[in-house]
Design a protein that fits this description.
CATH architecture of the largest domain in chain A: 2-Layer Sandwich
Number of helices of chain A: 17
Structural class of chain A: alpha/beta
Oligomer: homodimer
Number of domains of chain A: 3
CATH topology of the largest domain in chain A: Nucleotidyltransferase, domain 5
Shape of chain A: globular
CATH superfamily of the largest domain in chain A: ATPase, nucleotide binding domain
Radius of gyration of chain A: 23 Å
Strand order of the largest sheet of chain A: 6-5-4-7-8
Chain lengths: 396, 396
């Protein structure tokens, strides 16, 4: 409603069309004008005018296709200027920090990783993240006049939120201050949950592309979910939805750090697996992989632990499938290894426990974007302002 | 995108504004032009032109307020023509059928109830529903030329879907055929889950008005949920989401009809309550109320059964609060009585089990629209086409 008062109807429709076109090539990559005409339901001259505007703003390139096997004049191809239109994506994980420069089209152009500073004060962590971004920025070699910096986004592991009690509302302004000396003014930094943003990335351009009802499960010390329902991210009132690790599945189970008994993560989390296998592996991230390998090598304790965890993994997935009726479930983080090592177990539980109508169309996948999914998702937050209004955002 | 090709940008903006204005008074009721100007962010002359169009289409009335205590010229009040712009709402419940004529603004103008025909063939049930609608239609006394019939919607209990295996895809065309002889062509019939539509009604104009993250729990023979997340209904890929009754909460519990053990509805459903209380009451709908009254009258068995069910009710709600981070949970159907009889029990479980961040802003409510919530929600489906494009729909 507000746009109709601030600009003419024609201008408002033009902005919508520019956004739709740029979003299309951001998601699908290089696309011919003929396909854009077809997919966006606009005529050729309108598409030509829109791509001219976007090219002038430095957001796309147009040219002949790299190769053409067909006779006749080939349709001009529109490409996102991935190396020149970029955002910064960061992830705050339990044991490490990551930052990446991500180009339009969701391409990771460059990245840095560091250990997460210890302690409960967020300041050193945010300074370290800003330091990684500064390093990335220093190595950008393109001419600033020809570059479009759109903004930044951060994915925060739910385990970090819980263990350290850091709320998004406090992280956002502190991160903005830490980044300010290094970056030109732009959108963000936006902060979201790691599983939420991984879900967004896999939904936009990964294992769940084209699916509107998706559950992305991320395992590290805890278990959390990113939910896409009806094509949109579902995060709840305060952004705290998706805490599936604290869905109680086994009221007679072990005590959880949250105070409840038999939370899902006490049955399938890293610590549960190690405990059951009678193992102690100091490096958190590698513990599940090590247990899974031991199980495959015939270690009976490890094998029993993996079977137990896989069984409860399928159990919890069945509950979520009954609640959400999704078409894709993606297993990320430590759950990727666990799922791959005992997919039959997981499927068996799902198929015997979930209602036929709810599970009828469910596919189980691992992340197509691998461990980069949270970064690519954090970048989507930064690109969102650009896609909503390409010319306005490009002027920032 | 398609609207921009089929009409001019100005026309497309005008339709959007007409829809926004009509939606506002549909949800809020009679509203002064001054408030509309303020809330919709449009100027006075635009509001005047829009209300003139809607009045000409027979959708609203304009006039001076019924009473005014203020000095000066009162702002003209815009009212929905509730008695002349209407849809038909139906509900297919476990033990009864209902149909209502619902006016713009969500007002039930007239209604009929009948017992649900037995058997597994949907035809007699749909014929009976169509019969109720025909009765309602026959008693409409307004001049057809001055009436606007917008369409119809049906709310189906999840228990009926399960027990009889009726899918929405088969109900929709069969209901359309049954209704066709009685009604003018219009939108629908749309079919939705009873809990989903009750959630929509309470979200639009009831206990959850203004809340964007809502869980509506409906109890009859089973338990199902209607979910509003980010302001929208969440129903999953095939409309089968919200099957929270088959979330397993107690793996050591009793066998459920679905084949699993310890489903939520085996702990808090009607049959569980009667079993625990050692009671057998033939009338399904009244069983929970009877048990609750017996408990209040000091019957020890009934008291223990209510305490058990209330405890597990809070348990499941805590799981859902962790998953959805809602601000409102509404207890409908038989869960209304159960919740009211042991609210402290439910709250205690919720507050000890759910994560503080997820439950921080949760309010627990009973339905403001009472047992009418599913009908009012089914009517919302019928009104949706009108609100999306008032002038086009009004011409139907």
């Amino acid at each position: 409603m507000s746009s109709s008062t601030s600009s003419s109807p024609q201008e408002s429709v033009r902005r919508q069309n520019l956004g739709a076109l740029l979003r299309y090539i951001h998601v699908r990559g290089a696309t011919s004008r003929a396909e854009l005409t077809n997919r966006l339901g606009l005529n050729r001259s309108t598409i030509g005018a829109l791509t001219a505007d976007l090219a002038t703003a430095g957001l796309i390139d147009e040219g002949v296709p790299h190769e053409t096997g067909r006779a006749g004049r080939p349709s001009i191809v529109v490409r996102p200027r991935s190396s020149r239109v970029y955002g910064y994506a960061m992830s705050l994980e339990l044991d490490r920090l990551r930052a990446a420069r991500v180009g339009l089209g969701g391409r990771i152009l460059d990245e840095r990783t560091a250990a997460r500073p210890g302690g409960t004060d967020p300041a050193p962590t945010l300074a370290a993240l800003a330091g990684l971004v500064a390093e990335l920025q220093d190595s950008v070699v393109i001419d600033a006049a020809d570059a479009v910096f759109v903004g930044s986004g951060l994915a925060v592991s739910a385990s970090v939120r819980h263990h350290l009690g850091w709320a998004d509302e406090t992280i956002e302004p502190a991160l903005a201050s830490a980044l300010a000396p290094h970056l030109a003014p732009a959108a963000g930094p936006f902060v979201g949950g790691l599983a939420d943003l991984a879900a967004l990335a896999e939904h936009t351009r990964g294992a769940a592309a084209g699916a509107d009802n998706v559950i992305y499960l991320h395992g590290d010390a805890g278990i959390s979910a990113g939910i896409i329902a009806g094509g949109r991210r579902i995060t709840g009132y305060g952004g705290h939805g998706g805490e599936v690790g604290h869905m109680v599945v086994n009221p007679g189970g072990r005590l959880c750090g949250c105070g409840s008994r038999g939370c899902w993560e006490t049955e399938i989390g890293e610590r549960a697996l190690l405990h059951l296998a009678g193992r102690t592996v100091p490096t958190a991230g590698a513990a599940v992989a090590a247990t899974v390998i031991a199980a495959q090598d015939g270690d009976e304790g490890a094998r029993a632990a993996v079977a137990h965890a896989a069984d409860w993994l399928g159990f919890g997935v069945a509950n979520l499938v009954n609640i959400f009726n999704p078409t894709v479930v993606v297993f990320g983080g430590t759950l990727r290894e666990l799922y791959l090592s005992a997919a039959d177990h997981v499927r068996h539980r799902l198929y015997t426990m979930a209602l036929p109508a709810c599970r009828a169309h469910v596919a189980l996948h691992t992340p197509q974007l691998g461990a980069d999914a949270p970064l690519v998702g954090a970048a989507e937050l930064a690109f969102e302002s650009l896609l909503a209004d390409p010319l306005y955002a490009a002027k920032l």
